[in-house]
Amino acid sequence: MEEGENIASFILLGTTLLLIIVATLIIYTLYYQRKNLLLKNSNFYVSERISFEQYKRILSSSKFTFCPKGNGLSSYRFFESFHLNSIPVLIADNVILPYVDKINYTDFIVRIKESDCNNLDYIINRLNGIEYDIMLQKLNDVREMFTLKGVQEEVYNRLSL
């Protein structure tokens, strides 16, 4: 490799690392901005580290649970909230949900666009407009579909067709 190619490779590597560092700083900055917004409002519970028992207790006593999209196309917390009697607030644009051909998710979850996740007034107004008891009943109606038994029955039924 010639000296000019070495310098170009070094500059490219440096630029790539700089972009990664900037992207990481932006992600953390947005996280702390959202966290600080939530901390200023007494309607929300925000914590850094809690035990799993505390986590389950908090979710099961919450009317709503924020479920931001995780690393994949879904959120583990989304499914946990089903079983802890809390309406999931799914913050994701392009998430893949199971059973879309069988159930209407708008009956028992709240969806927030990723672009609206920093708009706390919008989210609070949206949640205040929810008929919680009706949504919770509809969530209870489909909960079994999200158990091991429900998934096994779905797989069996699809294979039996």
Secondary structure layout plus pairing:
Blueprint: H1 3-39, H2 52-60, E1 64-68, H3 76-83, E2 87-91, E3 110-112, H4 120-128, H5 132-142, H6 148-160
Parallel strand pairs: 1-2, 2-3
> Which H/E pattern describes the elements?
HHEHEEHHH
- The radius of gyration is 21 Å
CATH-scheme architecture of the largest domain: 3-Layer(aba) Sandwich
User: Mind describing the biggest β-sheet?
Assistant: 3 strands, parallel
The side-by-side strand order for the widest beta sheet comes to: 1-2-3
β content, as a range?
Answer: 5-15%
In angstroms, what separates the terminal alpha carbons? 61 Å
Q: What name goes with the CATH superfamily of the largest domain? A: Glycogen Phosphorylase B
User: How many individual helices?
Assistant: 6
Count of domain modules: 2
Oligomeric state of this protein: single chain
What percentage of residues falls in helices of 4 or more residues? 40-55%
Remind me, CATH topology of the largest domain?
Rossmann fold
Task: Identify the notable features of this structure and list them briefly.
Rossmann fold, mainly alpha
In short, what is this structure?
With 161 residues, the protein is mainly α.
Task: Describe the fold and architecture.
The protein has 161 residues and is mostly helical. The chain has 2 domains: 40 residues; 114 residues, 3-Layer(aba) Sandwich (Rossmann fold), CATH 3.40.50. Helix content is 54%, strand content 8%. The protein is built from 6 helices and 3 strands; from the N terminus they run ααβαββααα. It has a 3-stranded parallel β-sheet. β1, α3 and β2 form a beta-alpha-beta unit.
